[in-house]
Amino acid sequence: MKKKPYKIAAKAIIFQGSKVLILRKSFAERNAKDTHGWDFPGGGLEPEEPLMEALAREVMEETGLQVKVIAPAYVYDEIQEEKHLLIIKFACDKPQGSVVLSPEHDSHHWFCVDQLDQTRVPEWMKEEVRRAYRVYNEFRRSHR
């Protein structure tokens, strides 16, 4: 079996009260990668870049926001043709600034968590939001 290089990516599931930020990839990104197009801000680590710095950098590059990272909410890996990708999704709070999207995305949406089922967001993404929302709420209860 051929060994594949590991790549680590960090994604932010950002909450503001009962709303969650979900991005829509640009038309070019959706076509190039044949993807559903929904996304959380974040991306891959650069060589020797600490995980939290990478997450803060990616969120700033893709949204113009600064956030407070609460805790990991979801971890999974994906073995792709060219690499083995490890993805860590973090529940985040207190977005500061105004959303300014990078060319990678063409729109952003603040969805009410309790109304996600009425959206076109994929089921797996809804489940990740629910899991991160539990982490987010637990954090808020313990830090009152």
Automatic annotation (TrEMBL):
Q: Per the database record, which ranges form the Nudix hydrolase domain? A: 5-134
Spell out the coiled coil positions from the record. Answer: none
SUPFAM superfamilies given in the database record? Nudix
One family from Pfam that matches here is NUDIX
Molecular function, one GO term: hydrolase activity
Q: Which InterPro entries match?
A: Nudix_hydrolase (IPR020476), NUDIX_hydrolase-like_dom_sf (IPR015797), NUDIX_hydrolase_CS (IPR020084), NUDIX_hydrolase_dom (IPR000086)
Tell me which CDD domains the record gives.
NUDIX_MutT_Nudt1
Q: Where on the tree of life does the source sit, at the highest rank?
A: Bacteria
Ordered alphabetically, the record's keywords are: Hydrolase
The entry's family comment says:
Belongs to the Nudix hydrolase family.
Name used for this protein in its record: NUDIX domain-containing protein
Q: Which organism is it from?
A: Polycladospora coralii
